[in-house]
Design a protein that fits this description.
281 residues, mainly alpha, MetI-like fold, 2 domains, 14 helices
């Protein structure tokens, strides 16, 4: 009797957990679904009460209006260039810095690491004016370098890599590689990099999403439409007199699709790296 009671309690607890997961998944997916529904309906349907919850037939029309209003594909291409190059640079430079902080001893190490952590507490808006002054002195306005170069070093990325390398790369493995005559960079490349692939995937997801969704800094340094990233270009869909919500949400939805694809690809890599094992020969 007690065994049956115990099994019932376990099944009820599992059912409760699954129910919570279903609710959480629904709450997470619903905004994206609703945005897709609005992107497929006419503006009059969107403004109706109650609003539509079933996809309509205006998907092609709304997206055609987006293409006719802004340089959508050009902005997507610019965002891809900025996001991919910046993310790759952050992964390389931050993992190098994190490896140095985790496995090397040098003068001022703790002070420098604390200084990096302090920069995480400063709002990025406070650095907007001096950063803009530097960009103008370098004559990088209306150039994608104005977005890529300042984003190559990330304080959170250094902190994340330092913590992950400290806990997952054994000191004995590093010492053995040095005894075999490996240089510091070769130790990093051959020993640390295969181990920290899950950390790479996680940081890549965070950084790529941040760069893709960044609006304020690209708005400040990009003035010409040919150099707009997608977030800046989407601003052109808003008219001061007539607001076509179907067109706006269509552009927003299709601008989100590449981000979802990148997230799913990197998420698969993250899970695969964990299941294959931490240390690879």
């Amino acid at each position: 009797m007690s065994e049956k009671t115990g099994s019932k309690k376990v099944s009820i607890s599992k059912l409760f957990v699954y129910l919570l997961l279903v609710i959480a998944a629904f709450l997470s997916i619903f905004p994206l679904y609703w945005m897709f529904v609005m992107a497929t309906n006419h503006n009059s349907v969107i403004n109706s009460v109650p609003p539509a919850f079933i996809p309509g037939s205006e998907l092609v029309t709304n997206f055609t209006n987006v293409i006719n209003t802004i340089d959508f594909f050009g902005a997507i291409w610019n965002s891809l260039i900025v996001s991919v190059v910046t993310t790759i640079g952050v992964l390389f430079l931050c993992s190098l810095a994190g490896f140095a902080f985790a496995k090397f001893e040098f003068k001022g190490k703790n002070f420098l690491f604390v200084a990096i952590l302090v920069t995480m507490m400063i709002p990025p808006q406070l650095g907007l004016i001096p950063q803009y002054f530097i960009i103008t002195q370098l004559d990088w306005l209306n150039d994608l370098k104005a977005i890529i170069v300042p984003g190559l070093i990330d304080a959170f990325g250094i902190f994340w890599m330092r913590q992950y390398i400290s806990s997952n790369v054994p000191d004995e493995l590093v010492d053995a590689a040095k005894i075999d005559g490996c240089t510091n960079f070769r130790v990093y490349w051959n020993i640390a990099v295969p181990v920290i692939i899950p950390a790479f995937a996680t940081l890549a997801i965070i950084k790529f999403m941040y760069i893709w969704n960044d609006f304020l800094w690209p708005l400040v340094v990009l003035r010409e439409e040919s150099s707009f990233t997608i977030q800046v270009a989407l601003r052109g869909l808003i008219d001061n007199y007539v607001r076509d919500n179907g067109m706006i949400l269509s552009g927003t939805f299709w601008a989100t699709v590449p981000l979802i694809i990148i997230f799913l690809l990197l998420n698969r890599l993250f899970i695969q790296s964990l299941t294959e094992g931490a240390v690879k020969s």
